[in-house]
Design brief:
Shape: globular
Order of helices and strands: EHEHHHHHEEH
Distance between the termini: 14 Å
Strand order of the largest sheet: 2-1-3-4
Number of domains: 1
Helix content: 40-55%
Number of strands: 4
Mean pLDDT: 95
Radius of gyration: 14 Å
Number of helices: 7
CATH class: Alpha Beta
């Protein structure tokens, strides 16, 4: 199982704490240190649609120049921006076989991992 995120994100910290407390083994992929490939973003998009993981509620999106926000017209535009600004990806991203989940929801984790 793989968890994608950034270490200073409170939601990622909550998720990792939950996984540790429930003895769920995982490999952590730090977006800040390792980035994210275009292939991985396209894979997630093909499974859920990029709208599911483009975090428009976060500070990074809110601080974007309005012209940049307005320039996001296509999937390719969005994925390119997400690759450049990985902190706009809703996190953590949990990949466990066919299970793909963005964010932390204890009920969802409980259902999947128990």
């Amino acid at each position: 199982m793989k968890v994608y995120g950034i270490t200073n994100c409170n939601t990622v910290k909550k998720a990792l704490d939950w996984l540790k407390a429930n003895n769920v083994n995982y490999e952590f992929h730090d977006f800040k240190k390792l980035g994210v490939s275009a292939e991985k973003l396209n894979e997630w998009d093909s499974k859920t649609g990029y709208e599911k993981f483009l975090n428009k509620q976060g500070l990074t999106w809110k601080q974007l120049d309005p012209a940049v926000k307005d320039s996001i017209k296509t999937k390719a535009d969005a994925l390119q921006l997400l690759q450049q600004k990985t902190s706009m990806i809703k996190r953590p991203v949990i990949e466990d076989g066919d299970f793909l989940f963005f964010g932390f929801d204890e009920a969802v984790y409980q259902q999947h991992f128990k």
